[in-house]
Amino acid sequence: MIRKSLKAKIILPSVFILSVLVVSLNVFLSIRFSSLNNGLLNEKLATNINSLHYYLDSNLTNTRTAAVSMSFNTNVIKAIQERDTDALLRTLAPMHEQYGVGYFTITDDEGIVLARTHENELLGDSLASLQNIQDALNGKTTSCFEAGVVVKVSARTGAPVYDADGSILGVVSAGVRLDVDSELEKLKELFESEVAIFFEDTRISTTVAKNGRSVVGDTLDPDITEIIVKQKQVYRSELDIYGEKYITYYEPIFNSRGEVFAVFFFGMPKTELTQASNNVSRDGVIYGFIGLIISILLIFFIMSSVSEPIILLSNDMSDIANGNLSVDIKIKGDDEVGHLGRSLQKVADILHKLLEDINIMINEHKKGNTDFDLETEAFRGSYKILADSVMELAAFSMRDKLTGMPNRRSFDNRMEMEWNRSIRSKEFISILLVDIDRFKIYNDTYGHPQGDVAIQTVAAVLIKALHRSTDFAARWGGEEFVVLLPDTDLTGALGVAEMIRLNVETKVIPCDEEQGRRSTVSIGVSSWKPNKNSSINEFVMTADEALYQAKNTGRNRICHHKAD
Question: Which residue among 193, 294, 419, 467 is least enclosed by CB atoms within 10 Å?
């Protein structure tokens, strides 16, 4: 039922939409056929213009990266210092492809050429008049389009090379030539258009051919020159070039002084684009109907593949909803359904871990280990809030709110665990019942808040007196406390009890000083070596009887009971 409903909701609307789309497309192509050619041409022109700007900008970026990188190259610096042309060529020639540049030129600190990777035999001439060289000799890295001595049109960057003392040794200039046929052939393929470079108003390189030969040496039309060179504007037009119609575009190239010294041209054959648009219209009708049929078949296939994992996920979600958090979600792909499956698995794993940690904590608390807590930082969001709430509830049930020490329930859990351990190990176990003397009178005299301070003070003394991890202290109730000392005989227990008694006696707790009384505690001690016939209640009762004896024989003292 779910599968049929899901398919019906997707397949039928999809088929309807695709049918309307195909019919609308055919009608649209018929109506807009006349305007499609111009639209495609304008779009292609805009794309080529953006590509041209990106190409020019990327050339400047590449030359800057190359020049700056090589200016810090230790081999280059050393070769300039030694004026070693061969070393410079060996270092720089392999770097063309790595940095996407066409050549490197190296000069000394006066702009005299030490090496050229593009004309390696032409040395010793001065390039100090070139802007990128001038700026570099003055300590400034400059990128620009510029005409040089050998290269007429190129993007280039000059970067200063410094000696160890900070003085300028020379200049590394990196460039990309725009005036060579090899570069224009790449641009022809990029733009799918004929391209050309004009130096000033003369064409010096082009892919436009007449009778199989590139046409160079001719000049721009004076009217076009007026717009591009003098008015510094781009020029677009539809021109006839050697008997074929072209959509043409002329882009001025500026040097560092803002002068137009070169022009970039590309022309798109109009007949090819017109034929291409006609082919698109024809193919759109044919492939539209074919695509409709294929799409309908694909929708059926896709729905079959999508509905199956959704059903599996639905079953897994039902298991989780029914409390089966150990479910293994089988759908874990990279698509949206797989992402849903992984998220569902994550939820189940988090809940499973949370419940598992809670059970472990409960078991530890049952053993009297009240220091065992949940690692709430492992959870996020509402899960962390839930974990924190469980922690708060556990602390409330296992710890005394006033003193922060374990409560009577925690003691009972720990007592049972240590009692059974002592039976197995056949070792002594001791218990101390500690009661604050005359606490009711103290509480009535100084008030309940001060009474709470007295209880907290005695609790601190008890906690400080325990030096082993197995020792355990808890609030028994009211002004009474209990201390459990596993593996401790009567002598050891009396030692701990005496230390507690003395430490409480020396604590500064307000009391009736006029009558010479100090706040003290009475302690009942019992030490047994239990067996299977022993009773925890009897053991605790003997300590309580010892405490009663201490209270009745003057307080501030220790009485004990021992059983073998």
Answer: 467
Going by C-beta distance under 8 Å and a sequence separation of 6 or more, which residues neighbour residue 433?
476, 480, 481, 482, 523, 524, 540, 543, 544, 546, 547
Name the token pair of 435: 């009661």
CA 120, 126, 130, 134 torsion-angle sign: positive
Q: DSSP string spanning 38-92?
A: HHHHHHHHHHHHHHHHHHHHHHHHHHHHHHHHHHT-HHHHHHHHHT-HHHHHHHH
In this structure, whether the domain defined by 404-563 belongs to CATH 3.30.70.270 is answered with yes
How far apart (Å, rounded) are the C-alpha atoms in residues 370 and 361? 9
- For residues 486 and 529, give the distance between their C-alpha atoms in angstroms, rounded to a whole number: 10
pLDDT number for residue 384: 61
Pick out the chain residues at pLDDT < 70.
1-12, 14-16, 18, 22-23, 25-38, 272-285, 288-289, 299-314, 316, 319, 321, 323-328, 330-345, 347-379, 382-396, 508-518, 562-564
Q: What is the pLDDT of residues 465-506, one digit of tens each?
A: 999 989 999 999 899 999 999 999 999 999 999 999 999 988
Residue 370 C-alpha from the chain's centroid: 38
CA 252 to CA 231: how far, in whole Å?
10
Give catalytic residues, as residue numbers. 479
Under DSSP, the state recorded for 406 is B
Total Cβ atoms within 10 A of residue 286 = 9
CA dihedral 380, 386, 391, 397 (to 10 degrees): 180
Task: Report the CATH number of the 53-177 domain.
Answer: 3.30.450.20
Show me where the domains of the chain are located. Answer: 53-177, 336-393, 404-563
Distance CA(197)–CA(184), nearest Å, equals 8
